[in-house]
Structures are given as C-alpha cells and as structure tokens.
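Anyone? Bumping this.
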Amino acid sequence: MNLLPANVRAMLESLRERAISTDFAARLLGNTTPPARRLRPRQTTDAESVAGFWARLREDGCADDAVQAELADAAAIERAEVYGANIENYIGTVKIPVGLIGPLRVNGLNAAGDYFVPMATSEAALVASYGRGAELVSAAGGVTAAVVQEGVLRTPAFVFDNMLTCGLFVNWVADNTDALKAAAETTTRYGKLISIEPFMDVNVVFLLCRYSTGDAAGQNMVTVATEAMCRYIVENMPVPAVHWFIEANFSGDKKASYLGLQTGRGRKVTASVTVPYDLLRKYLRADPQKMLAYGQVAGLGAVLSGQLGAQAHYANGLAAVYLATGQDAACVSESAVGFTRMEPRDNALFFSVTMPNILVGSVGGGTGLPSQSAALSIMGLKGAGKAAALAEVTAAVCLCGEISIIAAIASGHFTRAHQKLARFR
Amino acid sequence: MNLLPANVRAMLESLRERAISTDFAARLLGNTTPPARRLRPRQTTDAESVAGFWARLREDGCADDAVQAELADAAAIERAEVYGANIENYIGTVKIPVGLIGPLRVNGLNAAGDYFVPMATSEAALVASYGRGAELVSAAGGVTAAVVQEGVLRTPAFVFDNMLTCGLFVNWVADNTDALKAAAETTTRYGKLISIEPFMDVNVVFLLCRYSTGDAAGQNMVTVATEAMCRYIVENMPVPAVHWFIEANFSGDKKASYLGLQTGRGRKVTASVTVPYDLLRKYLRADPQKMLAYGQVAGLGAVLSGQLGAQAHYANGLAAVYLATGQDAACVSESAVGFTRMEPRDNALFFSVTMPNILVGSVGGGTGLPSQSAALSIMGLKGAGKAAALAEVTAAVCLCGEISIIAAIASGHFTRAHQKLARFR
Amino acid sequence: MNLLPANVRAMLESLRERAISTDFAARLLGNTTPPARRLRPRQTTDAESVAGFWARLREDGCADDAVQAELADAAAIERAEVYGANIENYIGTVKIPVGLIGPLRVNGLNAAGDYFVPMATSEAALVASYGRGAELVSAAGGVTAAVVQEGVLRTPAFVFDNMLTCGLFVNWVADNTDALKAAAETTTRYGKLISIEPFMDVNVVFLLCRYSTGDAAGQNMVTVATEAMCRYIVENMPVPAVHWFIEANFSGDKKASYLGLQTGRGRKVTASVTVPYDLLRKYLRADPQKMLAYGQVAGLGAVLSGQLGAQAHYANGLAAVYLATGQDAACVSESAVGFTRMEPRDNALFFSVTMPNILVGSVGGGTGLPSQSAALSIMGLKGAGKAAALAEVTAAVCLCGEISIIAAIASGHFTRAHQKLARFR
Amino acid sequence: MNLLPANVRAMLESLRERAISTDFAARLLGNTTPPARRLRPRQTTDAESVAGFWARLREDGCADDAVQAELADAAAIERAEVYGANIENYIGTVKIPVGLIGPLRVNGLNAAGDYFVPMATSEAALVASYGRGAELVSAAGGVTAAVVQEGVLRTPAFVFDNMLTCGLFVNWVADNTDALKAAAETTTRYGKLISIEPFMDVNVVFLLCRYSTGDAAGQNMVTVATEAMCRYIVENMPVPAVHWFIEANFSGDKKASYLGLQTGRGRKVTASVTVPYDLLRKYLRADPQKMLAYGQVAGLGAVLSGQLGAQAHYANGLAAVYLATGQDAACVSESAVGFTRMEPRDNALFFSVTMPNILVGSVGGGTGLPSQSAALSIMGLKGAGKAAALAEVTAAVCLCGEISIIAAIASGHFTRAHQKLARFR
C-alpha cells in the first residue's frame, strides 16, 4: 500500500513524465544569460511616457498593435495624467465588465432607500445570483443595516533592550496619549486617533492605533498619521528604542486575521433581513427546511475547514463592488471575513451578515477615477458624507449573495446556474 | 474610570450626536413606501440591452450623460455581446489603470525567462514598489520557483440518518473510487479527479474532492464534475442520504482557511531568491541587519494577530496580477495566505514565499476578455500550456513585493513612498 | 478621553502604586547574589533518594515535617521505585480526589455496556454535572460512539540547500516508502506507520508520519520509530540534508492546532445521542427551546472568539478522565478541540461530539501506576485491547458534559450549581 | 491508483477485518437491555459515603479489595470530608508522582529568588528535561519575568428582537458601567470588574467582562459576580432581552482561542533569559547555530500547522505545575498558547516565552488540598499575596522547558532521553 497521498503521487507522476524532456536542474539553478535591459522609468505620466513603455514592449517582442490597442486605447492615453496619480509605469487600462443589480432596499443607519448597485466581475452567473437576492430582500421590506464600529488600524512596534525599558515606555505612553493623538492628527483633517492598545512581548511593544478616517478608506491617512505619531514618540520618549517600525505586521492590513474578525478594521457592519417562506419559494424556488438543513452542514464545514468566521462567499460581492467603485481590490483579502446567520422564525427565515472589516471610501483612492466615480454616482454615494452608507450597502449586497447561494446549493440549482450562464465560454 | 474601550465610546458619542437629528428607529425598522419597480432583465446582452438599463437608471435619476459615457463608452457598447458571456445585466466597463514592471527573471519549473508583468491597481506607490523588487531580484539572478502541488477542491456533503449508515457509505465510496472518478471526468476534457478524502462527523460525510484542472483556474469545471459525481453516487449508493449538497462550505472557495493553508487549493508555488547585501543596499537603500530585526518583529506580529500563515501583503500583488490578466479577483481572499521567509546567508539574505492557493488560468474565465487577453500576451502566457508558468510568475511578483515592503519598513521609507507617490490625490 | 483600554489602565495603576515601595529595576535587572547550590541528582529512585531531596528542602527552609508527610507519605516512599520509572527527582505523590459517575451506557464500535467512570478533579460541581449528563443519556438509551480514524503524528523535517535537492528528496521518499515503513517498524511490535505526507516549503520538507499505536497512547513509540526511520533516511538518501530534526513542531504534539482539528492526532471519536424533550425536562429541568436558542449564541461565540472547532468544555471531562486513568494530562491541550452539535429532531434533541485528538492508552505511560491502574479496572478497560473502547468512553463522557452545561446555562442553573457545590471553600 | 488517503484505507481495512466477527449494526444501533441501576447519590461526603460507592462497584463486579485499596486508602478515607468540598461522589484519590526541579532563579516583578518547583507527571524524562533547563537559566543569572496584564473573562450574551433594541441596550450599558461594576463587585471581596467590551452581531450583544481576581484563579468568582451583574441588568435594562446567558462560549474558558492569545485570560506573563553560548554547550551539550537553524524550521512548523501562537510544549510544564499545586488541570487547554522566541545576541542566545493565559491561584480551588498545599509551601507561594509570583514562576518553568527541548531536538538527543528514561516501562 502506497503511503503517500494520492494527490502527491499524481503530482510526482506528472513531474516524472516531464523530466524526460526537461532538465529541471538547469531551469531551477539559474540562468546565466546576461541580465535583461532595465525598464527606464519616466518622470511623468502622459501620452509620451505611455508610448515609451509600449515601444520597449514591442522592441522585446512582447506586444503588437492589437495588444497595445486593447490596453492603451484613445481614452486611456488621453487620460494618462489622470490615471498617473494612482499608478506608476502606466501603460493603459484593463476593462472589467459591469453588471447592474437593484433596486436594493436598504434601511440603514446611514443608507436609506432603494439602490442600484453596479458590480464588476468576469465571473458569469455572479450578477444574476446577487440580483435574485436583491429582488428577494427588497420584496421582504429591505435590509436593515448599521455601521456599529469603525477604526482603521496601524500598528507600529518599538523594540527595547529589555523588559524594564519596554515597561517604562508603556507607562510613558499611558501618560502621553493626548500628545500622541495631537501629533497623529496634525497630518489629517479627517482622521481621528480613537484608541491606542499596547501589546507587549518581553522587549517589544506593538501599539494598536485605531483611527476613524472620515469618508476615505483611509489606509494612507493612517500611515501618515502614525508616522507623525512615531516621530513624536522617538523625539520625546524617556528611554531610547533600539528599533521602531511603522507597521509591525499586526494590523491585518491586506490579509485575513483573527484580530480583524474580532476587533474590526475599517467599518464593522451588521445587516439582516427576515424573509417569509412564501417569498423564498417564489423568488428562489427554495425549500426553507432544506436551507436550514444546509445551514447546519455549512456551519460545520466553516468551522472544520478553519475559516475566520463562517460565511459562504462575501468575497464575490466585495470584489465586485470594490472594483466598480474604485476601492482597493487587495482589501478583499481582509474584508472577506465575518459571520452569516440563518435562523428559523415564524414561517420565515432570518438572515444576517456581520462584516467587521469593510474598507470603503466615498472619496480618495480610486474613487475619483472616471468610470469608478460614475459607478458611485449611480448609487448616489459619491463624495463627502457617503462612506458609511456605502459600507452598509456593501454589506447588504453581500447578504443578498449569501441568501442566494444558500438557496441555490440547498435546492440543487447551484451547478445548473453556472452551467447555463457560463455556457458561451 | 470608564470601563468601555475608547473606540466604543467614540462610536457611541458620534451616534448620540447624530441621534438629535436622525430618528434611528424609523430608519432601521423599515420603509413602508411601496416597493421600487423591478429591474427588467434582458434575454440577450447587446447594445440594446445596455441602452435599456441606462434608460431605467436615467428615469430613476441615477445617471446622466456623463456617468453613462464613462461606463458605456463606444468600445463597451460595441463589445456588449463579448462581455455578455461573462456577466449578466451588463451596462459597460470599469477601467482600471495598468502599470508595468519587469523584466522579472524567473527560473521556474514552468516559467523560464524575463517577464514584463502588467499590474492593475488604483493604489499609488504599489507598482513602483513591486518594480523595485523585480529589478533587485533580477539583478540577483532571478527567482527560483516551482509549482509543487495542485488541486482545486470541491467538497460535497452527504447527510445520513445515523453513524452506521454514514460509515457504510464511506466504505462504499472506498470501493468505488474508480467509478466516482469516471463519473466526474465525463464532464471535462481537462479536469482530473486526483484524490478523495472523506471527513466524517457522526452522520455527515464531507468528500474532499481534489482536481487538477489543466490550464483553467477551474472553479466551474470542478463544480460541474462534482455534480456529475454526486449524481452517480445518489443513483448508486447502497444507503440513501437524507440530504446531499454540492458544496458544504468546506473547500475554502472564496475565503481564507486553514485547510487552504495546509493542503492548498489551486496551485501551490514555492519561490525564492538569495540577494547579496550590496544589492540590497544599492537597489533598496536598505540595511540587511535592520531588515532581519524587522523580520523578527513582523513574524511575531503575524502570529499574534492571527494571520493564516505569515506574510506582508501578498494580496496587493495578487489583486494587481489577477485583475490585469482576467482572473477572479474574489479569489484574492483565498490566495492571500502563505509563508514568507527571510534568513541570513553568507553576506546575503535568502527570501522566499510559499503560496498554497494560487488560482490562475491561462484559458477560461475572464482571460479571454479583450484587454485581459492583451495583458496575458505581454507576459507571453496566454492560452494552453501556460497556467503553471503564470502561477510561478505570480508568486515571483509577490516575492518582489515582500522584499520591497520589508526593506521600506525597515528603512523608514514606507510612509515617504506613499506620501510622495500619492501626492496628487 | 483616555485612549487606552480600561484593563491596561487598571494594570498600570496597580503597578504605579507598588512602584512606591518596590524597586522594579533592581528586581528585573538581576540578582547578583551567588548562585544557589545545585540540586544533586540521584542515580536511583528509592526511599533513600527521596530522603535526600527532602533533606535538601529542609536545609533550605522549604519544607518541614508536615509538608514532607503530605507528599512523602508511607505509601509514596514504599513505592518509590515503582514511581521512579515514570519520573525523575521523585519526592512523593500529590493526591487528587476522584469522583464516580455512571453507569454510563455506551453503544460503541469498541465500547459496549454500562460504565462507571472515575473522574479526578479538584473543581467542585464538575463531577455532579457530568453525572447528571450520564444519567440522562443512559436513560435515553446510551451514547452511540465510534473511533473513525486513528494516527499519532510525528513530523520530522529535512532541510536542504535548495528547492531542487529538496524536490529530489521528496521524489526519493516516494520511491522508498516501503523501506521507510520497515525501518520505523523495527523499533516496535505495535506501532504501524500508516501514512507519510510530505509538505514542502522551498528547501524544507516536513514528513507527516502517521502511526497506529496499538493500545498505547503512543507518543514515545512514534518518536522512537521516527528516529529509526530518519536514521535510515540519512544513511540512504541520494542528496545530503543540511539539517534534520526528529520533530519540527508541526505535529500538534502538546498543543491545539488546526492540523489536529482537521486530520486528527491519536484517535478521532464521533459520539451522539438523541434525547426526548421530556427526559431533558425531567433530568435537567431544561427547556429544549431555550437550549436551542443558547446553541445559536454559543456557536456564534465559538467562532468569533477563535476557537479551534466549537465546543463548550471538553477539557473538563478530558482532564478528569486522563488524570484518573494515568494518561498524559498535558495532552488535554491538544485533545480539547472538536465540534459539538445540537439539532432539533422530532420532539427530541440530537447531540453529538466529534473529538479528533483523543490520546489515551490502556497500557503504557502512567496507566500502570497503582491508583491509575485501579481506576482503569473500575471501567473494565485495563490492559491490551481496550484503548479504542477507552477513547469511545472518554468521548461519551465529554458528550455528557456538553449536554449538562448547555442545559445549565440555558436554564440559568449554571451559577447556582457552582455556588452551592463550592460552598465550603 | 487508489484516491483515498493511506490512513483512511488502513482504518477501513482494520474495520473490515473486525466486521467478520462483530455485528457493528447491533452495537451502534443500541442496547435494548434494561437500564442499569442508578448510582445513589449521597448527601454528605464521609467515610460512609465512600464505603457506599465501593459497595456498589463491588456489587457490579467493577472492583475488588486491591482496586479499592489503591484509591480509598486510609488517608483518603480519613480526609473524605476535606476532599468532599472539592468533588462530588468521592471515592478516594489518585496519586500522581511528583519530581523536584530547582533551585530556579527568577528575577520577577513579583517572584524574586531561587525556587524549588515540584512537578507532577507520569511522563518519564519530563522532570529531567525541565531540571536541566532550570539549572542552565539559573547559571545564566536567572529568568526575568513580569505579569504584564491580568483579567479573567466571563462573557454573558443578551439576545434582542432586533438591531435597534440591541443598539439601545449597548447605549444603556455605556451609561451604566458604574452600576454594573458595583453590582458585580457586591459578590466578592477580591474580584474587580476592570473592563467591559460589548461585541454586537445584529441582535446579540456579548459583554466581555474582564476581572482581576486577587490571589484566586477566579473562575468561580467571575461567574458569581457576572451573574449578579446580569441580574442587575435584567431588572434595570430599558428594553427587555428575549434571552440572556451567563456565558456565551466567547470567553475562552477551558479551550484555546485567539481571543485568549490576543487579550489574555488570567495573567499574561512575559519571561526571558539570555544564555551565553558556552553555557549552552556546557549544560545542554548543544550547538547554538544548530538551535537557531531548528528555530527557523520550528517557527515554520508552528505557523503552518495552525497553532495559536508558536511554542514547543508549554503544556508539559503547565500540567505538571498545575497538578502539583492544585490548579485546575483542565485550564491547560487555554493556558498552553503563547509565543516562544529565540534570537541571537552577542555570543549568546536570547530566549523568551509570553504566555497570556496563566490561570493560577495561591488560594482557593484545589490549592488548599493537603498535598497540593504542601507543594505550594515548598515554593514559598502558598496563601494571600502570592498568585502573581506563582504565575511568574510557572512561566519561568515553561521557559526552561522550551530551551531544553529545543536543545535536545537540535542536538539529536531528544529520542535518546526518552528511550533512556522511559526504559523501565
């Protein structure tokens, strides 16, 4: 009996087949050909700089007219300077299709009304699935939603000689939180340092700095503010630090983490809806009892597979809304955690999502780019004063997606939907 | 002394201020206005269907000419049918700026050569940071990389009356793996069912089905194949199941999970480079000792904050490459886990990333969309036979990003880079 | 507003108060008094060696007659040589009180019958609570239980120069599993190496070696077998390893881990019972609906607090059974993970536990010590052929504890039970 | 190729072999023999009650003279009433052998001096290994240690009709923390409610109540105090709760959790020592470079196997100290998480442990039992004012164990030590 897992054996077999024709050692141990010519950076981003990059790509045989035309179309070149504020070595734009769902009724602390939501994705069946959910929850009276917590983390660390100096530093921080707050807030009109939590490991202190960031997603804002705070600390601290670092990989920035699940990063939104059985049957052709049975198994799967939280596919809704509205798509990694509930009520099912890490802004970042700004306009959530509402609508969208996929899987429609809608590919 | 955390108090204060002017009860407890008019779905996706959706948006006051023009530009309308294969309720495209890095030398089992890599993002400083890393590692001889494992999971569950029937079913599965494999593989030319792992909890069995998926990312492929396998099971099993579900939330699909960290979903790539101290100083103006000191603190931060694995910001590189090349951006949630190492060698630093969940295809999904296909062409990784190489290049890009951010934070350049490059916003 | 958490402020306040009278710097920065005299080890364990240790303790003012008498009572001295096989520097025994529950009916693959279970603990109310559960489940027909998986892990690692040599090693392992198995099994009559899973990170390979260990818990057995396997590897491998280590902190030995939750270490037992509502009311004075309501909240708490699995207090039952029966109490750390379910059935509640890491033996370790051996005798589970049944009874005990605590918390009896039974202290 | 994992196949094979002689269906589906006779509880614990239980055991054939004598020896019977305060259905005591290590020098905020530490275990080699570590760190000047945080959690939950009433409740809590603190503290002279953190999920609020508990471990104390607080809440809250529960499975009580790793439960202790290379060579025959190499691999293993934190075997030291000193052995499950560091210094290695969940008392629980009280006396840590020092010594012991095992594994002595010391078994 072979003791190795079947997938390991399958991999080894395929490598052995290839080894006949490929010298793996030569490939892995290096490439002694002289280094390729460096890509010359351009000082400014404009039509000329774009042309320069394409010239190089064509020279190296990496592009032809057709390829260049798809990325560097007329609009992309014309707006090179606009895009240049958001990127370096700009060569054009990639176009992601956008589908529309709605009107999605949201009864939120901040969002109130019927929203059309543009979703950008290249995954067939996704928009249709969220759209079905939106129709259903709106028919049930809409999604109740609230931002219940906010705070973008930045977590600098200070390293000391020993435990004693480290402890003295924590003591000093405790006495100087007002000054630290002031130092941080000199750099920003909107950011507020709302809490500092010291976390000590022998001679290292992490300072968990939590900020409210107004209507911006705020990742840069908190970095700049924390840098200022750290500089104040370094100049005024009673004992010198051996090292300090602006971010000690503790904040959960760009990655799923338990800290994020528990204390949140960005906005924590909780959203729910109660849907009568007859609406579930009518809109989703779903059997509520079957959905509950699935909920028990899916809860088991979530825990045993080691998710952070328990949910079905927040990432799909998040990525589609983040992309359409100019948010940072990389933040899907940290935002896609939370807890979905489904509970029986009187001839109805209660559904909810709680998402502790929604990182969206209605200003700043990519929200000002032309098409992204247009997408925000469709939602009526562009500009100052709209970020909290945008967070609530985002959670409501994810709730639609959870209900829709649970119904589809429980009813055996899941595969069919994908087969049908992806049929052209 | 107030016993509540400061951020909770800050939130409550801001809500209390707003409560003066807002009736929260009225907002949360519902909206009795009649439901908004339903969005009429269109049977086909074409210029007319696009126009129809915009007509509705304008009617409802959600769009004007300018907004429509940004999403539904001439190219977007002209190609409505092309995009229609990847999305429903199509209304146009969102344009994400693309920056270029490279040439990035990769010495991989599958990727071999100097690659230009297009990255799509709206986060200033990101492309510059990855570009610096790429220049450095190429000067150091390139990134060694290998796909060491593959397998996209789909995890159906079968629910039985009791433990005995459940056990009998597992026994039957063990005797019928050939038939199950055959049933799954009838649906696909490229997908291979390479292992089945039963996981039992009293009366529930999850079957962890792992597939190789050829050059496609394979998420739909494995769903369709597993559906066929399940239908075979249901028709032939010796004891009837009370319920069965095509996916029991165990596979890690669209979410970070420990199962993914440990056994992988998609391709597991391991990539490394050893960089002499003088190159670190020259290209990144970084002090290697300071980088090592940071590495210790960052490792502590990773573990204590509850990451899955330990890394800095895979998500940034992943999202930018996934978006540019037409991969599923939602998969950033599951792909952005793994382990980054940095170790001292003889006057050099060894760096590596191991990423167990890279989900990329060189065919299928969004890879065939016009601009995405163009981006793959630039890399020379479009079409059949290229997915493994694309996975290795993706990991190499993430390695560049890890080195670059570690150097920037250790050297105190991190904030400055963001302030400078994001200065126009 | 103070930005620090209230508990941090409370701690700092108390330290500041103490700082008036204590020189923290002097305390933490060291102790320049000459080192204390070394404790002289004894070659043998017998009455004389015991006396020697006590002489030293008395000399140093750490013990008097009364203290000595409690640990080094006549029986403890008389059996010094017996205990000496299980411990070094033996000075006597600590006495833990044992309570009895049962008869607990178990309908298991391996355990079948009505068991009296001795539980060792010093926590008042614990035995009473488990006893109530045992009475209930027995009245409901008994606990169904099965060992569904087994395998004690040991995970050596091999470190290579680079990815290529590392890959070649994995390839060699794949071709030599029979020889590896043979080498491992030369050291043991009972242990069987049942699977080897290689896990690769650039130049490091972990070999996850899984053993069945007969009727022993098997932690030493797998270490000795793996050492032999590693020595075979080192002598025969085609490429030399830079380092190798018998255990690379991957096996989950003595700690909770996701690997343990998912693949198990020791025996995986799944156990369940269905209890009619009227029995719940009669034996536990509990309202089943209230229990279900609690189950939903407790499931949420489990996930959001970041448990490995979801359960209430396996550790209590495990520790009490492990201690009474001579198992390794430190293994409670790894055993106390799993999943407890509670689901409504027809006028009844279904309860189950699935515990993937039960590490018990009916031979070896502390099971041969006099009082521990007596406790195993009470259960009828002493000696060869009984370990699997012991694992099933252990899981059944934990199931009793889960039902009992859920009922107590749901019904508001939890605190009262503790107040009443701990009243004498 | 068989697609199932080898360990699954091995298990199925062994079950199939047994199935020839065993009717699994009959075993699992129940036992229709009449229920066994109930165990009659006794109102008091004394020699007579002990005799009563043994009479029943003998009647049922579960015990004979020899078995009874081992558990119910003269001392156990004589002190039945003493033990009866800590247990129900008392039938005697189990004797765990105790070994001595020390003198262990601790330079702590609370512990200061040279400590002899009794450790109770039945695992051969354990005491010897910790003893070697203790000798080494003392020779290096002792372990620096500090309790840096404290707080035992109890986490009641309140369930409301909807998000609005739930939010109003949180708002009310914020205004009434003084009253809540007062209500909780009426029940205890020593316990102090030091912080309350509300955690909201739609209509459910968990209140994370953190207490300092004086010199007791405090698990019962915080339950009783929280019950009083909850009763105050229920009587005074402005909106009625649908349900409330004293503990919502959120506190990490008796289980490893991320919440515990991050915010601690009990006392958080950080302890370190810097050991010159020559001492490592002399006392442990270890090569420091090899230890560092092992540290890198072990850190990788810790993260990839999904530990909470990263450490080697805290559980061994914790269990042995907890058992000897009358702590709750079940708490090993929650205490055995944290972070061990090893870093090169100038010709020396720095080692540290940070253990956020040490749950020890110098009064209360099992600390007053005769032999346990004697063990505390040996350490000089019995009674009021000693719990913090006991926590620091416990962490120092675990640090000794970490150093010792790292050296043993890195040097290849690990297996030999176990083989030699466990040789008699």
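Late reply, but here is one note on the structure posted above: The interface with chain D takes residues 1-6, 9-10, 144, 146, 148-149, 162-163, 167, 199-203, 258-259, 261-262, 270-272, 306, 339, 341, 352, 354 of chain A (CB under 8 Å).
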